[in-house]
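During the reporting period the student researcher (J.K.) took over the structure-prediction task from the postdoctoral fellow and processed the backlog of single-chain submissions. One of the processed entries is reproduced below for the supervisory committee.
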Amino acid sequence: MKSPLPLAGGVGGGPVSEGKPSDTPSPNPSRKREGNRSDRPVTLAAIAGAHGVRGEVRLKLFGEGAEALRAFSTFDAGARKLTLKSVRPANQGAVASFAEIADRSAAEALRGTILTVPRSALPPLGEGEYYHHDLIGLSCVSTDGSAIGYVAAVENFGAGDILEIEKPDGKRFMVPMNERAVPAWNDDGVTVDAAFVE
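J.K. obtained the following structure tokens:
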């Protein structure tokens, strides 16, 4: 069962087993600078502008829809917090109202504001599931033990999740996030079948 958030996925593969050097790649140095993973902000939406005159805002969603936002009562919006009063689906996004936004001027002033929640606020995942957010930045090794880069992005064009891996030379390639191509992953890295490495 998947989480209602679009940031979640799952494959038949599973966590990397402990013990073998090739199974435990060193993490991408950029991830170490992010601090405690449970406190890392996860972007769920951005305010696209005002909607009407009563302080509602149009949201660009980075999730599966307005329903996913209802799981959270407050959002970090830069230096302030916004308390969700209501949210409903709208053409190409959602329309929301927040307790702290009383009129159109206040709504317009927040145009471009990113709405985040701490990673620890996301619902727990089942076995074999992951949040895209958790995969981005992980180091990648092939099943033959060679370092191949890190996960630069996770895409989904409708047929399942795809990892975009950036190699040390800056070139990127894509790998389907399935048991055959990615036999294992954990918080420290992703193992990619050598046959899928470009």
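The committee noted the following: The two ends are 32 Å apart (CA to CA).
J.K. will present the remaining backlog at the next meeting.
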